[in-house]
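Journal club prep, notes for RB
We'll compare a predicted complex against what the paper describes. Inputs for the fe (ii) ion case:
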Amino acid sequence: MSSQSDNNPDVDVNEVMELLFSVSNALAEQAGKAVFAVGGQIPLAGLTDSGSNSHSHVSIRWDTGTGNQCLKASLPVGEEDVASQHAFTQLLSACEPATFGRGNEDVLDESYRKAGKLDAERFSTDFNPYEYGVVDAISRSLAQRDHYGIRAELYKLNVYSGPSGMFKAHVDTPRATAQMGSLVVCLPYAHKGGQLAVRHGGREVVFDWAAAQNAKPATIQWAAFFSDCEHEVLEVTEGHRLTLAYNLFWVSDGPTSKTDNLNILEPESLHFFGALQKLLACPSFLPNGGVVGFTCTHAYPHSAEASSAESLENSLKGLDMVVYQALKRLTGSVRVTGIIDDRKDYYYRNEEEDSRITPVPEDSYTIGKFAVGTTVGGPVLIPGSGEDNFVEPTDPDLVWDFQKQESKETPLYRRQNVAWLNHIPTKDTPKELALAFITYGNQYDLDYYYSSAVIIADFRPEGVRDVSQ
Ligand SMILES: O=C(O)CCC(=O)C(=O)O
Ligand SMILES: [Fe+2]
């Protein structure tokens, strides 16, 4: 095969492929190291047998539900301390069986989650994650930028008891666009098992707290992870594993554009940044300009009506933020958007058989042509089919507000090539429901578009390449 493009003899395809390859390699390498979960431990300082030091214990006070009565338990529970053991037993019995979200409802299913819980409205604690530097530590390792901090909001007390307490693999339901993660704090109480396994992008981090909880001095251990990470509490075989669960939110501490404050020049980002810079400077890469794309490695609520493009940009996590910032610096134009996954769910109307819907052929997804439009939640990329340069929306009522072309009756939108720095969204890319729509088959059926979050940049070579070279 010739290394010259058929259309343009000055374009060196091999050179572009090599440069693209080194960009995706740098990205893969960094993705393999990107932090998605962090943890630590806090010895309860000044622990005395009498437990008189306020920082030697953690107290939980809860409403009994009868009158205005409030009870208190203190951890760790003294081995000889009958009163504190009694209070702990009362705390256990105050807990309700823990449900979990399935679809739109909260269900109780002990084969999935066997635990007790107290909702935050029913209890308070003197443990404060800010006081011990936990929230600062999370900001430093997960935030990837200055002037953008993290706020922790107490959510629940969980109790997993031996011999079979556990919580199978799940992803926490985000309650707001600004929600970026979860913090789990393990309180001092002896138990066995109950490891917390956190997974993302094919990698796993296991927090095994039992050994320290069975030893002295008493310690508090914690783990924080991004909200799209799958996690699981393995079976607690003995004792009680008590955790405080917090929701974590992004907070801005200044009026500056938050996404401008990423420290892109961190050593681990430099390799990728340099490779991208070389690619964009190569005269054979998109000689007339075009769209550069990156499929996000984390999930974002990008199609929800409440999510705006601005808040999406500010809520990028880990590697996604690094890529966003690098593209912003190098192209001057970048945005976060959704891309509709067409392989199963994208259809176009077959002209001849007007009442039928025909699936787009599989390979139309991989040719890399996408049209940019707008749906409920903001701009999206829609894969095109066939060889046309314009694509007709399946149904203008469902996918609307496209940059309309001449004809008002049949709004068309232009397809563009996207050069992907990593890959187009795959089966394993985080997806979310973008739109539900009615298909026109023999009967009215509901069908769905699923979309994945992507970062795209409009690339104009004249802004990057020195024309005198
Ligand atoms: O207790 C834990 O370690 C995890 C709790 C959890 O996953 C949750 O409350 O959603
Ligand atoms: Fe969870």
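Talking point for the session: The domain at 37-252 is CATH 2.60.120 (Jelly Rolls).
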